[in-house]
Here is the input.
Amino acid sequence: MMAWRARCRFEQEQWTDADDEAQTVLSKPRLSTITKIPALAALAHVRVRHGDPQATPLLDEARDLAMPTGELQRIAPVAAGRAEAAWLQGRLEHCVAEARIGYESALAHQNAWDLGELGLGMWRGGGLKQAPQNAAKPFVLQMCGYWRAAADQRYRDLANALADGYADINVFVPQMRYHYLKADILDATFDHQRPELLVYAQLPDEKRLRLVAVEYAVPTNLAAAPPEGFTGDFDHWDRNDQFGLWTLHAWVWLENPDGIFADLNPRVL
Here is the structure.
């Protein structure tokens, strides 16, 4: 249990706690292989992020234990750590090779998190042109170029959005809800870090408005064709003749079963 908790700490960027808990697990005598693998993987990945050369022997030991199991849950975290280490060292071919070890299995099993994490490794090394279908959202966003969406939570508080110049434009759309526009950035330029609109909704059992999506908008009178948008073919811009805009939603904060860039979200009533 503690070994997997160390992995969870790592995923939450609680690296000191992940390091401490992984080392506690590894200090125990007569440790089983299935317990040792996630602890090694978590500890090694923390060391990779810190640029510690001692990550290499830990990754090697984790690989040697994980590969004979043939199990994705053992192999994927190790492969992801080894791919990231190679990427940070500028060894792009090795990055792809390490990620591919678990990627095909993740693809076959449609494991969203492993598919996303290993797909990111493949993409970083040039082995993929775009995010794989059904990959976990944080990794898809990174591969699409919208890195900020995975981390920036500032506008989850509506007060911050209002303070920064976003204003309610009284547009209420079912399966979208309330739209807030920052008019002074509405121009012919697509900038993934500066969405022109924020979309808020009140979900069941929640009393206040919650940020569920961002929306990009480019006036049709300034652009005859839709913007190029994000990397890959996932985003499809909608021509809204009522408002004279090319628009694109990104459901960053609320999972959309129809896809991150779908126009409507059936989870919003």
In short: The chain has a mean pLDDT of 86. Residues 154-250 form one domain. The chain has two domains: 2-145, 154-250. Residues 2 and 189 are 48 Å apart (CA to CA).
